[in-house]
DNA sequence: TCAAAAGTGTTATAGGTACACCCATGT
DNA sequence: ACATGGGTGTACCTATAACACTTTTGA
């Protein structure tokens, strides 16, 4: 079978499923030439399209938030939503997540991880769009998100008290929070949220916040001592009205040796 | 902004990215009317398409295999590949996985779980196709896969000794094996591979095979005793030339109570 | 000297590892 | 009676959880 035959097979399948030839667009010829594009349904251009939605969790001093934009465009205009958009045909998924994030929120250099893909047929009111969810964990104070492109507002929203979201974004958010909790135990994504030199109290508060769970100070520290990739420094806090805390730092090479696929932070 | 305006925006974006109007298809008008479809590139119909690839792991008595088909069609004709195909526009992802599996392998009633999505721009030689991977674990002896549709052969392949696979299927397979190993610890997918009444030796061999790791008999059993959702029956093996083994069964309700997101089989 | 938070130590209990040993069955 | 694999028990060690205690700083 040649490439030409293959193409023919694809068209045959298309016809079988859609009960029509994919030339429906021909009927729009005159309107397109007159630049009258308004009446052409989206689905004629994206028979099936894919998008990326970014679930950006923001952490700061014991508070976990999520970055939402207000949609300035239909559908779901004026609804709060995850920053997300269609993937360009010539763009890798990961790159797309970063580009979309930059377009809508002005954020750059974010370390995103793919989680789940959502593909319910009716999840987008204007056509078939499947969406790949990406999560990231960032320190809110390090960043200044600015709404741009079709995003009309942007805001860090406290989890547990969220407005009604566009599309199935609530489902995506909930699922991604679960994924974040798994990720933070196995991947060093938490390093993006702490300063290079951090105290164990900072580390504990971070894990308590993300995992929504309290830990005993002594036991937490005992566990840390067993982790070779957390290196104690000869430096400590200054000018605090209590015993100064010793700084630690993350040792990436040591981490790479140790990790073998399982949870590293087994908390 | 109305739906019409929204459609216009989409088109504008399309033009910006592709440096052309999406009316390229008009140039094929005469060929289409003459039913001469061979020369039309697939990408004109699926500007971007999505597919599903099924990684079906087959288990039987201490052996783990993966179900592959030989492609009877271009591209990668005569290569071994994961059973996978394009998703229909009106089909949910999960349903698509089951349909594709049935089309290519004749298998039905398989419990598949979504894992990772692969979207490299050049992963499909004939156009942009992103693919969602699904995994399943089945007992090879329960099923008789039969190659159909464009699959020319079908075979259970031993892991660790695989032929060169089509597309990026080797990468998908490797990543999905990792996912299977995580899944089997947290979800009761292993129940599909054992008879309803099974012995602890059977269970241990299964976990050893999938996780590629040996366990101590006594310690394995001690752990099992702590799992309320594994119920000891008053029944045992018959006609074996050694002490007969006691049967156990899986208690789904008890399992649902216990599981709280983390690994249940912490092996 | 006191408040505040860092940091250590102690205990009882649970769980893990390695191994030896006994048990029930068919031949 | 013995080979075979099922099944249990023990001893040692290491985690875990809860809690009390000591240390270092600025005010």
What would you note in describing this structure?
2 copies of one chain form a homodimer. The first copy, chain A, is of the alpha+beta class. Chain A has 3 domains: 3-41; 48-183, Nucleoside Triphosphate Pyrophosphohydrolase (Alpha-Beta Complex), CATH 3.90.79; 188-258, Arc Repressor Mutant, subunit A, CATH 1.10.10.10. The first copy, chain A, has 7 helices and 10 strands. Chain A has helices spanning 3-18, 29-33, 93-105, 169-186, 200-211, 217-225, 252-258; strands at residues 49-60, 63-71, 80-81, 84-86, 113-118, 129-139, 151-158, 198-199, 230-236, 246-250. In chain A, strands 1, 2, 3, 4, 5, 6 and 7 form a 7-stranded mixed β-sheet that branches. A 3-stranded antiparallel β-sheet of chain A has the order 8-10-9. Chain A is elongated and about 60 Å long. At the A-B interface, helix 1 and strand 5 of A face helix 1 and strand 5 of B. Chain A binds a DNA duplex (27 and 27 nucleotides) through helix 6.
List keywords for this structure.
alpha+beta, Nucleoside Triphosphate Pyrophosphohydrolase, DNA-binding, three-stranded antiparallel beta sheet, Arc Repressor Mutant, subunit A, seven-stranded mixed beta sheet, 267 residues, homodimer
Kindly provide the name of the CATH class of the largest domain in chain A.
Answer: Alpha Beta
Q: Using the CA coordinates, give the radius of gyration of chain A.
A: 24 Å
Approximately what portion of the residues of chain A adopt beta-strand conformation? 15-25%
Q: Terminal Cα separation of chain A, in Å? A: 55 Å
The assigned structural class of chain A equals alpha+beta
Count up the domains of chain A.
Answer: 3
CATH topology of the largest domain in chain A: Nucleoside Triphosphate Pyrophosphohydrolase
Total count of strands of chain A: 10
Integer average pLDDT of chain A: 84
Largest sheet of chain A: 7 strands, mixed
Identify the biggest protein-protein contact and residues per side: A-B, 63 and 63 residues
Principal-axis shape of chain A: elongated
- Discrete helix count of chain A: 7
Order of helices and strands of chain A: HHEEEEHEEEHEHHEEH
What low-confidence regions of chain A span 5 or more consecutive residues with pLDDT below 50? 1-8, 19-46
**What does the oligomeric state look like here?**
homodimer
| CATH-level-2 architecture of the largest domain in chain A | Alpha-Beta Complex
